[in-house]
Amino acid sequence: MAKSKNRLLFRKSGRACYISHLDLMATFQRAFLRSEIDVWQTEGFNRHIYVSIALPLSVGYSSDCEILEFNLNEGASMADVPERMNAVLPEGIEVLSCYEAVTPLKRIVDLGWSVTMEYDNGIPEGAVEGFKTFLAQESCVIRKKSKKSKKGYTELDIIPMIKEWSIEEQENKLLFRARIAAQNPGLNPALILDTFGEAHPEWKCDFARFHRNEVYGDLVEIFR
C-alpha cells in the first residue's frame, strides 16, 4: 500500500519529561493504535507502526518543538490527527500540528534552548559576570566521550557551537537562553553548565532546568 511521510510537532512537559526516548516511541505507537488513525505498519511477521523522533531529548528535559516522523497510508487525512492523538496520549505530551515531511532532517542546524540555573542561597556574587565572561571567550576545548574514537573521547571547542546567547538575572535564578549547534556535532546545554561549574565551582548552580524552545534550519529559519 502506498504511504506518505508525515511529521508531528509535539510538546513534552511535566511528568512526561521523565519518559525515556524508547518508551516515548512506544507511547506514540500505542497512541496511534488507540486513535485508529490509518498509519502505515511494517510488513512481515512482527508488524509494527514506524515512528522516528528527531534529535531525542535527554530524560528530564522539556520541549515545545519535538518532531516525530511517521507514515500515513494513502488516502488518510492529516487534518484530524492532532485531535485524535491528544485524546489518547498521556498527560504532558501534546501534539501541536501534523504536516507533510518535506525538508530533510539533516538540514537541522541549531536548537533554541532556555536553561534555568537555580541557586538555593541566592545568586553568588560575581556569577553573572563570570558566566558572561566564560561565554565570551574565543575558545574552550573540552573532552567529550565518544564510542567511535579509539581514545574514548573527542576534543570539542564548545564556544563556536553557541551561536547566540543572553543571560537574565531573576530571584535566586539565572535564565540562560541560547541558540546551540544541533548535530554533526551537537552540543547538549548541560555540557556548557558542567564545563562552567568545573572551571568556577564557586558559581556552580544547585539545580538546572532545560527547555527546548525551537528548531532551526540551515538558513536560520524555523525548521518544520
Topology:
Elements lengths: L2 E10 L8 H15 L15 E3 L8 E12 L7 H6 L6 E8 L7 E11 L8 H10 L4 E5 L7 E5 L4 E9 L2 E9 L7 H11 L7 E11 L7
Parallel strand pairs: 3-10
Antiparallel strand pairs: 1-3, 1-4, 2-3, 5-9, 5-10, 6-7, 8-9
User: Largest sheet at a glance?
Assistant: 8 strands, mixed
What value does the Rg take, in angstroms? 20 Å
Tell me how many strands there are.
Answer: 10
Task: Give the quaternary arrangement of the chains.
Answer: single chain
Description:
The model has no long low-confidence stretch (mean pLDDT 94). The strands form 2 sheets. Strands 1, 2, 3, 4, 5, 8, 9 and 10 form an 8-stranded mixed beta sheet that branches. The protein has helices at residues 21-35, 81-86, 127-136, 189-199, and strands at residues 3-12, 51-53, 62-73, 93-100, 108-118, 141-145, 153-157, 162-170, 173-181, 207-217. The chain contains 4 helices and 10 strands.
